[in-house]
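Researcher: Please predict.
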Amino acid sequence: MRKKTIYWQWSAGGAIRVGKMKAVFWGKNPQWELYDISKDNNESNNLAQSKPEMLESMKKNWQDWRASTTP
């Protein structure tokens, strides 16, 4: 399992991976999705509804990272 958090930003999307969890969004009005990629590497079982606190924490971390990398 990864020890460091990984962040992505591309076109109209972005993602964050913390341990086995990955949060991802795409589009101008993004709907974030959450996956346990240790059990769901195809990202087909969105856990956003069942783990809202985890998703919110990951979203905030991604937004903080993005703000720190934007001039």
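Model: The chain has a mean pLDDT of 93.
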